[in-house]
Every structure is written in structure tokens, then in C-alpha cells.
Automatic annotation (TrEMBL):
Matching InterPro entries: NAD(P)-bd_dom_sf (IPR036291), Sc_DH/Rdtase_CS (IPR020904), SDR_fam (IPR002347)
Molecular function in Gene Ontology: oxidoreductase activity
Keyword Aminoacyl-tRNA synthetase appears in the UniProt entry: no
Keyword tags: NADP, Oxidoreductase, Signal
PANTHER family: CARBONYL REDUCTASE 1-RELATED, CHAIN DEHYDROGENASE FAMILY PROTEIN, PUTATIVE (AFU_ORTHOLOGUE AFUA_3G15350)-RELATED
The family this protein is said to belong to: Belongs to the short-chain dehydrogenases/reductases (SDR) family.
Organism: Thalassiosira oceanica
Domain of life: Eukaryota
Biased composition (Polar residues): 423-432
Pfam families linked to this entry: adh_short
Signal sequence region: 1-19
Name of the protein described by the UniProt record: Uncharacterized protein
Chain intervals for the UniProt region annotation (Disordered): 361-432
Length: 432
């Protein structure tokens, strides 16, 4: 073999090694990850085998370290994945700077950012509505926007970079009483400055007590999530071709935020964030709900039914992808098949501080008849089968093998031809 061929072979080998190293060295960041939905998002990313590092951004470092130990000890977490925690308070610029400086020095890039951190005042909180406005927006919108903007340089250095903003069905357009405000928030040409002006106007009207008369919604939490959804669209437009930016609704989960009254386990809600974070050929500017891509309805009905599940026009051939342990969907699959592909992850009961228990389950995908956009988990031994096309009920979760399963509410089956839409959430209702 001539020396020129040897040099060519070595150069190809080096390039392949560098490409493989970049693929295997992927970094994910999850904010608000020490408990609840954020914890399960971090656990899902760590167990996927797609990331070398998963960093938990936590306001309370002690709880963050406990979450790190728990995730690292899960049977599904590979030893090749390093799980760590860094202090991060979304409402603090100083905390942002320290976090990003540490990430820049340690990794030099970020491949996936999941903005999960957020707050919501409980209905029993004595703080007046106007007193809840500023702190809610400071974390759920302003803090999240500032932190993400500061993270963009690191994300642009990542490979197949993703941003997933955890929103809520409470952020629907129907909460706005003004058609003009609905038009502004849903405009495809909405700019950052215009959005910021709208949010500032809402805050001023709340503090002056005239927000309802001006056509605003009557939920600080809902308005903060509506603004975050609008910001997702703006980022998707600005970062087109560089970063995939999507948002999701985890559903009404049993977490501290909902006083554990939700009908969905946080591990199930986390899937709505994990799909856009890990799927192949991810779209951008989309809203994920109930394990698929939802769309914005253009008719502003009195009930505020803005987000509805996309319906499938034709059957598409299912495809398998060579992802370790988990099989993901492409954007086209999410539009045509209403649940994720082969999905395997641990369920962790994090409601108790005294240890965690695990139950592994596997979701199997089937083609969905066009009559219904929801799926149902049917327990079959230790392996629930996901049958797409019927109303979805979460699998029963038990704290340990001795405890009986807890009953879960099951939605009524839908008639052929009917479409289910996200219902309006009032400001007095618990929010996911």
C-alpha cells in the first residue's frame, strides 16, 4: 500500500472518529429537575443512551444532588451517562451567569435544553391576583426567555440542537376576551419586541385592576404560558435550520404544583417533552400534546378550544430507527400515528422522600384508525399495551409491590368522527 493511500485512510479514520465522538458526546440541560415532571424528563434523557451528560438545573442544590443520585442509580441509566447538578434560579440573572459560565468551561456546548422550571400560585394562596402577576411572569416567562437567550450561543455549537419549552393547556388563546389580542398573539409575524410589549401591557393592566376590561385573561399562569408558546414560535423562526424549538403540554400531572390531584403520573407527562427532545427529524415551532403534534385552531370559539390534535389523512408505513433501547418517531410519524414508537423507561414514584420504587413498562405502537386521536394503556401482566385509537388511561402506578393499584379515571370512548380538543381551563382550576 502506497504512502498516499495510507495517509488517505488515516485521515478518513480520524474524521470518522471525530464524528463518532461528537455524536456520543451530547449534553442535555433540564431546568427545575429535582422533582416532578422535570425529574422524569432528566431520567428519560439519561436512560436513552443518547447523551454523555445530563445536567440538572436546580434552585435547591441539596435536592438536586439527591435527584442526581436517584437517577444515576436507576437500572436504565447507562454508566456512560454522567448525571450532575448545577445551581440555577431561573428568576436570577446572577444565577444564569454562573450556570452558563460553568457550562461553557466544562462542556463548551449544549445539545438539548428543556425549560421546565416554573411556578404557579395555588388557589388557596392569600396573595391577591395583582401580587401574583409579577413573580409568575418573572419565572415562567421573563426568566425563561432571558436564560434561553443566554444559552443560545452554547446551543448553536451543539449537534442537532433542540429547545423544548414546557408550556400548558392553560396557555390557550381562548382565555383572551379580545379578538384583537388573539390575533396579535397568534400572528406568524409577531416579533420579540411586540411580544414583550404585550406582556408588559398585561402586567400594567393587572396592577391597575383593568385587565379584564381590556380583554386579557384572568390567569397569571395561563398568560405566562401563552406568552411562552408565542416565544417558542419566534425562536423557531429565528433559529430555523440551526436549532429545533418546540413546546409541549405535559398534561394534568400529579405533582406538587397540582397538589397531587392530577390524573397523570409525572413520568407520563414527561414523555411529551422527551419526544421532541429525542425524536429523529424533529420539527420546529410545534406544540406537542398527548404524545403527538397538536395544531392551533383558527376559529376562536367561546369555549376557547384552541389546540386540537392533528388528524391523519392517510395511513403511513411505520418505520424503525436504530436508537438504543428506545424507538423514536419522525415528525411525519407524529402527524400520522398518535403515540410514540417502542418506548421503555422506568416509572419512579417520587411522591415520597423515603426511597423510590420502579416498574418498567413498554409501549408498543399500532396504526391508529382515524376515528380518535387518543390512546389507551391496557395492563397485560407487567407489560401495558398501548392501543392507539381509543381514549387513553394512564397505567396504574404502585409505590411498591405490596400496595394495591390506585384507581385512575378513564375517559369515555368517543364516537366515530368526533374530535377531542383541549378544553378551556379556568383560573380557579388546578393547572398542570
Amino acid at each position: 500500500m502506497s504512502s498516499s493511500r495510507i495517509i488517505l485512510f488515516l485521515s478518513i479514520l480520524i474524521r470518522c472518529s471525530q464524528a463518532l465522538s461528537e455524536t456520543m458526546s451530547r449534553v442535555a440541560v433540564v431546568t427545575g429537575a429535582n422533582k416532578g415532571i422535570g425529574f422524569h424528563i432528566a431520567a428519560g434523557l439519561a436512560s436513552s443512551g443518547l447523551f454523555s451528560d445530563v445536567v440538572l438545573g436546580c434552585r435547591d442544590e441539596a435536592r438536586g444532588r439527591q435527584a442526581v443520585e436517584t437517577i444515576a442509580s436507576l437500572p436504565g441509566t447507562p454508566r456512560s451517562c454522567r448525571v450532575s447538578c448545577r445551581q440555577l434560579a431561573i428568576g436570577s440573572r446572577e444565577s444564569h451567569d454562573a450556570f452558563i459560565a460553568g457550562m461553557t468551561e466544562r462542556y463548551g456546548k449544549v445539545d438539548v435544553l428543556v425549560n421546565n422550571a416554573g411556578i404557579a400560585f395555588k388557589g388557596s394562596d392569600p396573595t391577591p391576583f395583582e401580587g401574583q402577576c409579577k413573580p409568575t411572569l418573572a419565572v415562567n416567562f421573563w426568566g425563561t426567555v432571558d436564560f434561553t437567550e443566554e444559552m443560545l450561543p452554547l446551543l448553536r455549537k451543539g449537534s442537532d440542537a433542540r429547545i423544548v419549552n414546557v408550556a400548558s393547556m392553560a396557555g390557550h388563546l381562548g382565555q383572551l376576551r379580545s379578538r384583537e389580542l388573539q390575533r396579535k398573539f397568534s400572528s406568524p409575524d409577531l416579533t420579540k419586541d411586540e411580544l414583550f410589549s404585550l406582556v408588559e401591557e398585561f402586567q400594567r393592566d393587572v396592577l391597575s385592576g383593568r385587565h379584564t376590561g381590556a380583554g386579557w385573561g384572568n390567569s397569571n399562569y395561563g398568560m405566562s404560558k401563552l406568552a411562552l408558546i408565542a416565544m417558542t414560535k419566534i425562536w423557531a423562526r429565528e433559529e430555523e435550520g440551526d436549532i429545533s424549538v418546540n413546546c409541549c403540554c405535559p398534561g394534568y400531572c400529579a405533582t406538587d404544583m397540582s397538589s397531587h390531584r392530577g390524573n397523570r403520573h409525572p413520568s407520563e407527562g414527561a414523555r411529551n417533552a422527551l419526544i421532541p427532545a429525542m425524536m429523529e427529524s424533529a420539527p420546529s415551532g410545534e406544540y406537542f400534546a398527548d404524545f403527538g403534534i397538536a395544531e392551533i385552531s383558527q376559529n376562536y370559539s367561546p369555549r376557547g378550544e384552541i389546540f386540537r390534535q392533528r388528524t391523519r389523512e392517510k395511513q403511513s408505513e411505520q418505520r424503525a430507527f436504530s436508537f438504543p433501547e428506545q424507538q423514536k418517531s419522525t415528525a411525519e410519524d407524529c402527524r400520522s400515528v398518535r403515540c410514540t414508537a417502542l418506548w421503555e423507561s422506568p416509572l419512579v414514584d417520587s411522591s415520597s422522600n423515603s426511597g423510590f420504587s420502579l416498574r418498567s413498562f413498554k409501549h408498543q405502537r399500532e396504526k391508529a384508525p382515524p376515528s380518535s386521536p387518543f390512546s389507551m394503556c391496557v395492563l397485560s401482566g407487567n407489560t401495558p399495551q398501548v392501543k392507539v385509537g381509543e381514549p387513553r388511561a394512564a397505567p396504574d402506578l404502585v409505590r411498591d409491590s405490596q400496595s394495591p393499584p390506585q384507581p385512575r379515571p378513564v375517559q369515555k370512548p368517543m364516537r366515530n368522527g368526533q374530535k377531542r380538543t383541549h378544553q378551556i381551563v379556568s383560573s380557579a382550576s388546578p393547572v398542570p
